[in-house]
Structures are given as structure tokens and as C-alpha cells.
Amino acid sequence: MAFFLDLTVNGLLIGCMYALVALGFVLIYKATSVINFAQGDLVMFGGYIAAAGLSLYHLPLWVAAPIALLLMLVLGFAVERGILRPLIGQPVVSVVMVTIGLALVFQGLAAMVWGAATINVPLPIPFQPFILWEIFISPINLVAAGLCVGFLVGFVYFFRRSRMGIAMRAVADDQQSAMSVGINVRIVFALSWAIAGLASGIGGIVWGNMLGVDTHLSLVGLKVFPAVILGGLDSVPGAILGGLIVGAVESVAAGYIDPYVGGGTKDFAPFIIMILALMIRPYGFFGREIIERV
Question: What pLDDT score was predicted for residue 24?
């Protein structure tokens, strides 16, 4: 039982980080009805910026981290303003292909600027785990979960209470109706991308500390995809729940199945859950019941 609790608790802590990245997917989809396949690459880019500030330029953390987050916020805004906005009115497939192209551009640009070698994001967090009721908890997992929960709580408050948050909800529900009451849809689009960039920046700093930063960090976006599908592409609570489920499932699968098969189950177990979920509930736990066949 203690082993199961250990796997579940640590999986849920990692799941908080998945939920953070999944939020970026959901925000952009709610605002623009486009799945951003460059979300993982935004995480990678945020990690590169933080790693460059801390490891290459030796800036203190209180300077490097805010700069990285600010640059990611600006990058998200710039991507929407410079690349996605001119595509308004174009077929969704065209926009999706642009996000795939952006992903490859980000990877190539990062390798060109910072090199292909793995760079660490050093944070003043001890590596030694502490024990709580026979559960081994890594300090970085706990700090990461705290950061993610803080961001998610702040975002939910902004989304539900602020005027701009209400505008974002209105645009997500019906763009034409939102425009008819004077809501500037373009500003909402830009804000969605900026917040997604900010969330990616936080994810990049934390993941960069855990795994180091190189172009493979962009695969985080692929790992988060089952969380987005499980929760529902257009649901913020669904993104959070999906992230927690994926984190717990991959941790438990790795703990119980890997010893018998030699490893690797944590990489595909969430996708099996995703496939089953799609067969039973194609729009996710909290998504709207809109099914399109192409």
C-alpha cells in the first residue's frame, strides 16, 4: 500500500506540471479552435531562455526567471500577432500546419542559438528526497507542483472574475456574439497566446531543472496531449484533471509493470487511456459534445 501511495502521490505532483502545459493547449483551442502543435516547443524555448540566463550568462535566479517568463509572454503574443493573425479566416488545417511548422522552426532556432548540447537549469532546490508517511517526495516535484497550482489558481481567478477573463469566456463560447457586444476578439486571441507562452515558460524552467534542456524537451508537448484529450480540448478544469490522471497513470504503470517488461510503459500507458477514452467519450470528461468527422 505504501508503494502504491508513493507512486500515486509523486505521479500527481508530476501531473500538476502536465496540467500547466495542458492549460496552454486548452487556452489556444478555446480562443481560436486550433490545436497548437508547437506547445511543447514553447516549453523547450522557455527552458532554453532560463538555462541560458542561469548557466551561460550566470544571471541570478531572481533576474533570469522573470526575464525568461517575460520573454515567453512576449513570444506568445508575437506568434499570434505576426504569424497566426494573418491566417484568420483560412481553413483550420492551414493553421494547424503552421503550428507544426512553428514547432520545427523553434527546434532549429534553439539549436542554432544555444547549441545541441543539454543545458541545465540550476535551481536552489536540494536533490535529497524527504519522507512523509513512508512516501518519498522529491523537493523539485513539490516545488514544481506548488508553482503550477499557484499559477492555475491565479489563472482560474482571472478567468472567472476579471473583465478580460470574462471576455475570454465569451469569445470561447461564441465569437460572433462576443463581437456583437463590443469584445475585441483579436486582443483575446493575443492574450490567450501570451498566457500560453507564460505557462510554457514556467514549465520550461521546472522541466529544465529535472531533465536538462535540449530539443528533446519539446516531447513534453506530446506527453501532455493525452491529458488534453482526456479532459476535453475546450475545458480548463478538464486540462487540470487530465494532467493529474496522466501523471498518476504513468507513475503507477512504471512502478508495477516496468519491472516485468523491462521498462517503457510510462511512455505509452497514458495513450492507451486516451484511446479508450476517445472510444467511450470522444469529447473528453468536460469537453463540449461537438464531434466532427473529417
Answer: 79
